[in-house]
Amino acid sequence: MNKVRQPDLNQAIHGVEHYENFPVASLLCPAHLRPAIRAIYGFARTADDIADEGNASPEQRLAQLTAYREDLMACAANQPFSEQWINIFTPLATVINKFSLPLSLLLDLLSAFEQDVVKTRYADQAELLDYCRRSANPVGRLLLHLYGVTDALSLSQSDCICSALQLINFWQDLSQDIPRGRIYLPKDSWDSHGVDQEQLLALAVTSASTQLVAANLAWATDLMRRGAPLVKSVPGRAGWELRLVVQGGLRIAEKIQQINYATLKHRPKLKTKDGLLLVWRALLM
């Protein structure tokens, strides 16, 4: 399962490695919101593990996700839930009640995790964006909800940022996802660049595959720039967190460009030294 990620940003700045790009209660988050962010993170991380970790069959994963969904519904209705994930749903119940979290966003995340169990190809940008709408965008909207930012423009900009982060992560991770059978590059994009499935499965770096990755990276980068003005609408330290998020995604895009888009063979990563550059660029925003 490809997680809802800011490519390696938290690993570089906060040291978080698993489900690494959810901004988990960093020092930039107000202290009173950290328990809520941890509860949402725990919910998403556990569902992601059910969908992706271990050796369970697709049928077993889907059955577990169904049980997880049932516990979420019980939690949201202040009804008893199972003991299996009591450490997840006990704090989440408090957060749902305290902040009136939109249940639909949590359900969207589960829908994306369920889809990732069974779907490994995407026909076009629209289909991939629908996946991002459920796998990535709810994270941003949940965080904005905690900060009390609910206007339509801000939500739209948040969606652009979150989808862009997800897409940049896809193009960063081609050398890892494709051997696992998942190709997130839209199929109509392969066709228009003269690349077929066999070439992708072979991780063949050619002029055509380079142009394919470059075109999709340009799409994601454009989405990020469309969403970037949101950083000026989010109050206080959260706005600075978001600046680092945006700059982290753009920095990974730069690193992909620097290796001539050869992410079929190499996975560029942010290093600790990139942190200072991200802070400087965040200040310039």
Automatic annotation (TrEMBL):
* EC numbers on record: 4.2.3.156
Keyword Electron transport appears in the UniProt entry? no
UniProt GO molecular function:
geranylgeranyl diphosphate synthase activity; lyase activity; squalene synthase [NAD(P)H] activity
Keyword Transmembrane helix part of the UniProt annotation: no
Question: PANTHER family under this entry?
Answer: BIFUNCTIONAL LYCOPENE CYCLASE/PHYTOENE SYNTHASE
Q: What is this protein called?
A: Hydroxysqualene synthase
User: Which keywords does this chain's UniProt record carry?
Assistant: Lyase
